[in-house]
Amino acid sequence: MQFRLGLIGHPIQHSLSPWIHNQFLEKSGLTGTYSLIEITPEDSFTRELEKLKSSGLHGFNVTVPYKQKIIPYLDQLEWKAEVTGAVNTVVNQNGKWVGYNTDGTGYVRGLKEQHPSVFEDTACKVLIIGAGGAARGVYQALIAEGLSNIDIANRTTVSAEAIAQKGSDGVQTNVLGLQEAEEVLGHYNLIIQTTAVGMKPNTEEQIISLEQLNEGSIVSDIIYQPLTTKFLQTARRKGAHVHYGHTMLLYQAQYAFQLWTSYNIPIGDLKQQLKTLLEGR
């Protein structure tokens, strides 16, 4: 069987997804292709999706700006995509398009591999910074893993409150402003930065002060360009354990590949290879 996979979005020419999925294809022994399918704002989104559907793709990833826009074109949504309101993976199941969100699961897989202790203590106190699609995915994935103390900090609390309302029974979530989060940072065992603050080219930006950070806490940033953000540099100087964003990129792709092919490819040395690739950019 020849798998036909791809990525839709704009702009996508610098995407690392082809490299990652070609590695998975090689490691699985499967044959297939992974193509970049650029859909510009000038294109008719409806017409382009009609072409995709008739092309017989087995599955594809979705990136900005189409993670929400694609939802009305799908036949079905799995629960994580429905709760987060965003789709980053589409699977062709017998001619029907089913939308998934693999970001949260990918984040948790990467975190669990590096810091399993987080999930051994259900009383672990977590702070998620940001209230966008990534924050929604991470929030739901942490709840699914049994964590029950997950606060959310954001510039505007309305968006954070909307995420908290999707929590489960038994989950305690407080919504904070960014300044308030700075003041109580010492309460948390795990801090997860999910915004674009600090991403290239604005590498000197940092979302909040880490002055009150406890030594030994885990500090995570989902940004991977640059690999070591100013947020993580500051955390490391404060004695925290840092968790890099490229692991989420790799593990969410692993889960997408599993949905398409039923093959769960071990990450192995791919994490170091991707790190080296990113450091060279």
TrEMBL record:
Catalytic activity line of the entry: shikimate + NADP(+) = 3-dehydroshikimate + NADPH + H(+)
Q: Which InterPro entries match?
A: Aminoacid_DH-like_N_sf (IPR046346), NAD(P)-bd_dom_sf (IPR036291), Shikimate_DH (IPR011342), Shikimate_DH-bd_N (IPR013708), Shikimate_DH_fam (IPR022893), Shikm_DH/Glu-tRNA_Rdtase (IPR006151)
Quote the pathway field: Metabolic intermediate biosynthesis; chorismate biosynthesis; chorismate from D-erythrose 4-phosphate and phosphoenolpyruvate: step 4/7
Outline the extent of the Quinate/shikimate 5-dehydrogenase/glutamyl-tRNA reductase domain. Answer: 123-198
The main enzyme category here is oxidoreductase
Residues of the Shikimate dehydrogenase substrate binding N-terminal domain? 7-90
CDD domains linked to this entry:
NAD_bind_Shikimate_DH
Select a single GO molecular function from the record's annotations and give it.
shikimate 3-dehydrogenase (NADP+) activity
Which residues make up the binding site for NADP(+)?
Answer: G130, A131, G132, G133, A134, I222, G245
* Signal sequence interval, chain numbering: none
Q: In the Enzyme Commission scheme, what number(s) does this protein have?
A: 1.1.1.25
Q: Which UniProt keywords apply?
A: Amino-acid biosynthesis, Aromatic amino acid biosynthesis, NADP, Oxidoreductase
One GO cellular-component annotation of the UniProt record comes to: cytosol
Where's the active site on this chain? Answer: K67 (proton acceptor)
Q: Outline what the protein does.
A: Involved in the biosynthesis of the chorismate, which leads to the biosynthesis of aromatic amino acids. Catalyzes the reversible NADPH linked reduction of 3-dehydroshikimate (DHSA) to yield shikimate (SA).
Q: How does it assemble?
A: Homodimer.
Protein name per its UniProtKB record: Shikimate dehydrogenase (NADP(+))
What is the originating organism of this protein? Lentibacillus cibarius
